[in-house]
Amino acid sequence: MTSLHEPLALRRGPALRNRLALAPLTNTQSHADGTLSDDEIGWLTARARGGFGLVVTAAAYVQRSGLAWAGQLGVASDDHLPGLTRLADGLRAGGAVSAVQLHHGGIRADAAASGEPAVAPFDDARSGARALTTGEVEQLVADFAAAAARCERAGFDGVQVHGAHGYVLGQFLDVVRNDRTDRYGGDAAGRARVLHEVVEAIRAVTGPDFQVGLRLSVERFGLDRAEAVTLAGDLLASGRLDHLDLSLWQIGKSPEDDPSGPPLVDAFLDLPRHGTALALSGGVRTAADAQGALDRGGDLVCVGRAAVVDHAFAGHALADPAYAGPQFPVTRDHLRAEHVGEAFVTYFAKGWPDLVAD
Length: 358
Fold this sequence. Notes:
There is one protein chain. This protein is of the alpha/beta class. The protein has a single domain (20-327), classed as Alpha-Beta Barrel (TIM Barrel). It is 36% helix and 15% strand. The chain has an eight-stranded parallel barrel, surrounded by six helices. α1 runs parallel beside α2 (81-93), α2 crosses α4 (134-154) and α4 packs parallel to α6 (188-205). The longest helix is centred in the middle third of the chain and has 21 residues, at 134-154. It is globular and about 55 Å long. The termini are far apart.
């Protein structure tokens, strides 16, 4: 059995000191121009000091047109480098391996916040997004790669490509709405092409020790579950990824299209990994939950909401296998004491009112 305490050697770069990762969490603490604030740096570096082996930032836009909410982190310009460098230094000082999550909102972008028209794989009347041309998709791939190179210059150990939750790369995977007739649509291989090209492009512009991960949704958002399994298998087999993070909502849940069936994750656990670490995300609230994800067959466990309200969740779980995790609801003052800035306190309380006692 794998223990939460065991270090995890990835294919490239530094090993993680343990099997616990801070999940990428929207926190709306960046400045309007996408530069990091003191609050955002403080929230992330506190989790590094709290014992997490890997700390992943919130989704960071690679093109201004992809900004999806006010207060989002940016990696689209060299203007973002000073704050990114400061954050990378702080995470390293805290003992964590670091990664920036690379993102573009697509139809979920906020044109009012970005000041630019929304673009996506297909026209979308509801959001007003227009379909990207083939050349613009190629530029999107190049901008993901440029953002990764910028993160490497800032001193991060790696990046995580955001292919989950119905944002732009996941939108290409939509079997219903992706009606493209170029090489980025038409069949499963065409729909997945942009993901492979992004990873390949990042590998081409970064060093041999730079880590590249990818977060993937495996249901909802127009995804075909069989295609998702095939895609995950192809990504694991490619040798280009250091970790693949499956975003499952709840790690042990059954598929939404088969609620009495076996857990959704089971279809992915037997895939040959070829040296790529498989990370599991969803509903980890206690030390037992985290250990259970490893016992089920994961290599790495990502912690979300529990890490918001306990910056030292990792340290507590490592010290006590019976650690019951933070008890909800918590107060706003509790969040502030856990190095959560005011913008994040407001966002968290609005998004999960059952978790915060006003």
